[in-house]
Structure formats: C-alpha cells, structure tokens
Write a structure and sequence with these properties.
It is built from four helices and no strands. The protein is mainly alpha-helical. Helix 2 runs antiparallel to helix 3.
C-alpha cells in the first residue's frame, strides 16, 4: 500500500481537508491523526507504509 492509498482508505479521518489537498498531508499530521483517532490496525498499517524509524523520528 502506498502513502496515497493509505490516506484514501482513511479519508474519513481527514474530512476537513479538501479532496484535492489530501495527497499533500504532512507526515506529522498523518501520524498524529492515526495515533489520536485510528485503531491499532491503522497504526500497524501506517508503520508498514512510512516505516517504523520514520514514524518514530516524526513522533
């Protein structure tokens, strides 16, 4: 799964961002949103997409 596909599959969490701007979501916002509103499965998927080291650095 790519980053864009991940955002698309979780688009309901980013309801306040226009559809044409969702691809421009920063990694920081993506990680924060998943940690705040996502499930454990969402978090595990995020780690696969961005990599655990990058997620840890941004966090």
């Amino acid at each position: 799964m790519t980053r864009t596909q991940f955002i698309q599959s979780h688009k309901n969490m980013f309801w306040y961002i226009p559809a044409d701007k969702k691809a421009e979501i920063s990694d920081a916002l993506l990680i924060e949103t998943i940690l705040n509103d996502g499930t454990l499965a969402d978090y595990k998927s995020l780690l696969k997409v961005l990599g655990p080291k990058h997620v840890a650095e941004v966090f």
